[in-house]
Structure formats: structure tokens, C-alpha cells
Specification:
Number of helices: 12
Largest sheet: 7 strands, antiparallel
Helix content: 25-40%
Structural class: alpha+beta
Shape: rod-shaped
Length: 393
Amino acid sequence: MSYVVFRNKGIIDPRSITTFGASSKENKGAIGFFGTGLKYAVAILLREGCEISILSGSKRLDFGSRKTKIRVDSFDMVTMNKRAIGFTTELGKTWEVWQSMRELYCNMLDEHGEVIECDAFPEADPNTTQIVVRGEKFTDAWASRSDIILSTDAIEKNESVHIHPGQSQYVFYRGIRAYKLNTPSSFTYNIQRRCELTEDRTLKYSWDADAAIRKGFCESKTPALIQRAVTAPKQTYENTMTFEGCLPSKEFIGIVRDLANKRDVHLNRSALEAVRVWASDELHSGPALVLDPVETAMLSKAINFNIAMGYKVNDFPIVVTEFLGEGVLGRAENGTIFVSRRVFMMGTKMLAGTLAEEYFHLKFNTYDETRSFQNFLVDAIMTLGEKLLGEPL
């Protein structure tokens, strides 16, 4: 049976093995900081019948256990070179062997070390710390490490998250499995920004992962990646993802706009609303919306109706768009009348009224919900009444 050796430059202080809460690492980006990981790993491995030793430079530290009775119960007290060191093999009682492997691997990463496999116990190195493990259960865990340690290359990177190919039930944190999703994801996510972890190295708050992933997609400049995220099938993590709260890239806005214009039924509603918020300031730069024959006829009729009443709405460009925001039917801006496509579902009368309102805003420089606009509407109604009666008041 081979040995798995975690090694790094520098000599471990034996006190850091026996003292809880003592985590001293030079790497500011270290994953671990509780000062308990190595102790948990030692206890778990001994409990599961594995062997573990540490070569601290030229000094060898062998771990074992011996029975100790505390009050009415017996425990296996962990020993280092046959001397009890203050904890039992019950430490990490619910943890499994793969978690001990993860602890040792994370410590190695924090110290910028390496892992090797060898058939014989390694030689001591006066300038190196080596953690040496042997045991069938640990060998099996190490062989399955791809489930715990992310090994694929990212297809998209930013400061918040690296996005990797392939479905996954898990989210990773700086390369280490750290959170289990309720539904599998279409991609594999490796969180990069600082997050709080629990003592067993899982994400303390699930929203940390959600926020990092959302930001990753919103800032992406890769159209194919964005489209897959915002049209993810049901029963996937991405299908219920929320996109509000991030500034979307031009590529993200473009993809969502295109899908909305095509009325893609798979488009994530949250992505659409997020783009509506940001795209409302860029209405003029959006692609022209192509109307179907029924919508074209409705628009023509609404325009002619307004002209017949004396409101030449066609004096201004009329643009139909998907991106006015929830509940907004029309908007007058920079000499252009913008109309939400949703108005067409509400009938030609509503469409004509929306055109008239936005025309009034542009023609007479009036604003929504103001006394001046209220007075203008009253004057317009009275004037229309005079025309119908054929004489002035």
C-alpha cells in the first residue's frame, strides 16, 4: 500500500499540532484559519484505521492512540510519539475520511506545497514538513479526489468566480468543494472572492455563492456562456438564479434583448428584469423590434386615430421595445416615443392612449404626475369637446 505525502517548505511547530485555535499562516489568501484542521485530520484518520506521521524537518512525529477512561466512559486518546496530546479520536465525530484528506490538502495549498505518492516512507528533509498518510480508506479518498478538489480548467474567469465546464451538485471555494446545491448546476463554480466558512470548510452563507455566480455571469463578455445561463432548463440551479443588483455587460444586455425580442420562452425572467432596469438608459441603442402583421395594423390604426383628433404623434419617432420596465407602458425621451410591446396585448385603445400621452410630454414639455400635466389634460379634453360641438365655450 502506497503512502500519500503532503509536503511544503518550512518546519512545522509541534505546538501548532497540539494547540487548538492556533492558526498562523503567511499566505493572506489561506483557506483555513480556525487552527483545527490538522487535529481533525489526525483524529479521523486514527479512528478509521489509517496511519499518519509528520516529518518536521529531521524530526519524526508518529501519531497513535491509547485507551483512557474519563468518568464512566472510555476514549481513545490521541498520542504523538506515545505522549497524549489533549484530544481523542472522537474529534470530528461526524466527519468522514474524505474530509481529512481535504484538510491536509487545503493546508498544503495554504503553504504552497505539493502532494506526492510513493511506495516507501519518505526520507526526512531538514527544511521541509511532510505529512505522511497510509491506509486503504485514505487511498480510496485520494483516488476520488476529483469530487473534492476541482481539477478542470475554467472557461470563464473574473475576480468573483471561475466558471468551469460540466454539471455539478457542488460549489467550490478556491478549488475545494464547499457547498452542496439543492439542484444541480449546468456549470461548475469555483468562488474566488473572500467568503466566510464554517469550521468544516463549508460556506457559511449560501448567498455568498449566489452573489458571486450572479456577478460572474452579469459581467461576462462571452455570448454563448450568457445564453446558456439565462436559458437554463428547469430543475437546474441557473433556472431559478436571480440577476438583479449587478451592472450587466453590454454582451449580457445584448443577448437578453435578443432573446426577449424573439420571445424565447426559456429566458430567465430575472435576467429580463435586470436588463430592463439598466437598458432603459440605453433605449436608443437597442435593435429595432420587428412587429408582426397584427401589431403593425394596430399601431397604424392608433396613429391615425390620434392624427384625426389633431395629435400628430407621428411627428416624433415611435419605437416599440421590450425594455421599459415592469408596469411601464410608454416613455418619452430625447424626442422619441417609446412604447412597451405589452401595450399591444391591452388593445388598440390603450395603444392610442399611450401614444397620445407620450406625445403630450414631448410636444408640450409636460411631465408625469405634475399639476401642469393635469391642467394640460383638462384643457385638451375641453378643446376636444369644443371641436365635437362645433363651437367654442
